[in-house]
Amino acid sequence: MNNCYIDRLADDLLCIIFKLICEEEHAAFYDSFPQKLNGSHWDDWGDDNDYYRPDPSSHDSNFLASTLISAMKVCKRWECVLSQIPSIWSTFQLSFRQGATSLEHARTFLRLSGSNPLKITLLWDDPNWIVPIEYHYHSEPSLFPGSVPPIRDLLLFGTHWSWLSASMLSSTLVNLRMHYDGTYADNDLGYKLDNALLQLLGGLPNLRSLALELELELELGFGLDDKRPIVLPQLSSLSIKSRLMGNWTSDFLRCVRMPYLCILTLDEAERGYTETHRTRTHEGILRELVRLTDPDIMEDSDSCLLQLVELHLLNFSHRANAALIRRLYTQMITLEVLTLGPGARDDNVALTMGLLPRYGLGDLPLPGLRTLIAFDVPKDVLRHVVSERALVAGSLEELYYEDRENEGNTSVANDWQDQVETYHRIDSVESYRYSDIVSRRWSELE
């Protein structure tokens, strides 16, 4: 290396180059999966276990290999420079397609990250290498041996929470996202593991953002005593996504106390279940939300009145009676943002009509509503709701509307669009994942 021009680069310039490489590597990790998973986003539901079926190239020794790890092996000087930039080692992805090498890479990142809070993705995408969950024992070596790393952000994709403990995650964990399909697990084992999940969460006092993307084909519930609830004292954002929410979603809302929860996202991903099941599932969830937002029911000092600021509903087909929806909306006096997302077809109509003021009744549904985001709502229905609310509650501050199915319909006047302060017509969304919808990643028409 003494005669190599690269060796002459100043340390400061090398640091800049390595940081840029680190950023590119993180982007490449996420971009590599849509092509490998039948065109689906790597962190969304697929069909027939797409996410757990490696393609022929998945065991390529260069697949997702860490450029930083390779750079450390170039020469002693590069190794020295890289070891003095702990911030670039604080974010890493652990893909089990790399086999045992991935664990060694993870330990290198942990060693060099110093005291920087970590952002970690654990991706179980090779069932031929990792120990199946039904044969896993807690006595096996930890993924993170030694002292507890200061993990701030953790994404578990396909890796079951039985591998974890609250003590291993420490009190530094702020953002946790779990994506797991447990539909093929034994029911008895799954029931025990669900309780383990709640016990794990109960040991994370500083958790602020929680995303549970779980496929649990269980109707047993969590089996927790309401008198001994799990408390998440700092949680402000909860997202639940499942192709079959079942009882576990309403049970979770009942068994977990979240005094500062202000953002709730519910997404029942499309699957070939009957409309009867979906309606029953959603009605149970809505009834639990009605209970949590009722100040008379929740007046007990041990209860936590749910005071949401944002509610996002995606694929939330629902045909419950209007009285249930109205009661929920009337009790949610703090709500400012409501998303009626895509995937519900015409069933967003009932959730939209619940916003109508009822003349002769004093309580206005969602009296603090400022922003409405509406997909799959006929134009005439939305016009009626916006116009009627404007007469009683004043204009909405923002209205986002995807008019895809009705864009050729000229029979409905557009005069209602002037009754909101700012009207946005959604054109093309980046994706229909709930994270992109909630973050409003879409283009707009003039």
Structure description:
This is F-box domain-containing protein. It comes from Rhizopogon vinicolor AM-OR11-026. It is a single chain. This protein has 446 residues and is an alpha/beta fold. Helices cover 30% and strands 18% of the residues. It contains 13 helices and 15 strands. It has helices at 11-31, 33-36, 67-72, 76-83, 100-112, 166-169, 187-202, 246-255, 275-292, 322-331, 348-353, 379-393, 434-438, and strands at 91-95, 118-123, 151-157, 175-181, 209-215, 230-231, 237-242, 256-257, 263-268, 310-314, 337-340, 371-374, 396-402, 420-429, 442-445. Strands 1-2-3-4-5-7-9-10-11-12-13-14-15 form a 13-stranded mixed beta sheet. It has a two-stranded parallel ribbon with strand order 6-8. α8 (246-255) packs parallel to α9 and α9 runs parallel beside α10.
Quick one: biggest sheet? 13 strands, mixed
**Lateral strand order in the biggest sheet:** 1-2-3-4-5-7-9-10-11-12-13-14-15
- Number of discrete helical segments: 13
Per CATH, the class of the largest domain reads Alpha Beta
Run of helices and strands: HHHHEHEEHEHEEEHEEHEHEHEHEEHE
CATH architecture of the largest domain: Alpha-Beta Horseshoe
The count of domains is: 2
Low-confidence stretches: 34-40, 46-64, 127-141, 186-192, 271-277
Shape estimate: globular
> How confident is the prediction overall: mean pLDDT?
75
Our Rg estimate from Cα atoms comes to: 25 Å
- Considering DSSP H and I runs of 4 or more, what fraction of the residues is helical? 25-40%
Question: Distance between the terminal alpha carbons, to the nearest Å?
Answer: 58 Å
Count the beta strands.
15
What proportion of the residues form beta strands (DSSP E)?
15-25%
Protein name: F-box domain-containing protein
